[in-house]
Design a protein that fits this description.
This protein has 264 residues and is α/β, with parallel strands linked by helices. It contains ten helices and eight strands. Strands 1-2-3-4-5-6-7-8 form an eight-stranded parallel sheet. The chain is globular. The protein binds zinc ion (ZN). Zinc ion (ZN) binds at residues 10, 12, 40, 97, 209.
Length: 264
């Protein structure tokens, strides 16, 4: 692989399907030039485990936060729990994954009640947010616009991008990065392909979202960070450039957003 250095900006490795072979998974990602990864947090009970593996493997950094589909777990004390977790470990590089998921059209208000304090906390701690947004782009843009007007919108990334070029433009205008996952490699993902062609060089990241949504040619299998190379190659084709360019640009963008080196 030579000079290719990649950053998987979003994955999950503590689900039970990694219990038996996490060390092999790490060896494989090293063999593909993956230098860093951001392990996204979905719920509070994951935090001790994330802390543990991030200190076992140099590549692993993580976020702390509550996924919108776990919103019923948000409590009065949750904000201070997240604040403490973020402040006590230098491997924490973001708040999330947070956001809105209206796919099932349930508990919208509960999701918003968990989202806003997490956005405020990110601003307070000057950490970026990792945003999960499914079937809720308009609502998310409205909330971010409101925070932006008050000077309280954090930096961040829209992870696993599945929106339209028009929605992407609105998130870019708010200063957010856009992250492309294995979905990019699916033949019918026309709108995502369009977004991938036009996103500015300094505004995109790449990710696997392991263990979900493995990219072609691994489709249907368990996803893992080594496969971020497939996302990068596909993106290089779409943008009519070389893999090395995608590797350099996406890694620099991830460094700019997550500021790993400041935290070591
Ligand atoms: Zn995720």
């Amino acid at each position: 692989m030579g000079d290719i250095e990649l950053i998987d900006s979003h994955c999950h490795l503590i689900f039970e399907n990694f219990e038996k072979d996490l060390e092999d998974v790490v060896l494989r990602l090293r063999s593909k030039g993956v230098k860093k990864l951001v392990h996204a947090c979905c719920e509070f009970k994951e935090i001790p485990k994330l802390k543990k593996i991030s200190h076992e493997f140099d590549e692993i950094y993580y976020s702390v936060g509550l996924h919108p589909l776990e919103s019923e777990k948000w409590e009065q004390s949750s904000k201070s729990l997240l604040r403490r977790s973020a402040q006590e470990d230098r491997r924490v590089v973001a708040i999330g994954e947070l956001g809105l998921d209206f796919f099932k059209n349930e508990n919208k208000n509960m999701q918003i009640d968990a989202l806003i304090p997490q956005m405020e906390l990110a601003c307070e701690l000057e950490l970026p947010v990792i945003i999960h947004c499914r079937d809720a782009a308009n609502e998310m843009i409205a909330i971010c616009n409101d925070l932006f007007r008050k000077g309280k919108c954090p930096k961040g990334v829209l992870h696993c991008w599945t929106g339209t070029p028009n929605e992407m433009k609105q998130f870019l205008d708010l200063g957010f990065y856009i992250s492309f996952s294995g979905i990019l490699t699916f033949p019918k993902a026309y709108e995502i392909h369009e977004c991938a062609k036009i996103v500015p060089n300094d505004k995109y990241l790449i990710e696997t979202d392991s263990p979900f949504l493995a990219p072609v040619p691994h489709r249907g299998k368990r996803n893992e960070p080594a496969f971020v190379e497939n996302v990068a190659k596909f993106l290089a084709d779409l943008r009519s450039t070389e893999l090395i360019t995608i590797a350099k640009e996406s890694s620099k963008n991830a460094e700019d957003l997550f500021k790993f080196d400041l935290l070591i």
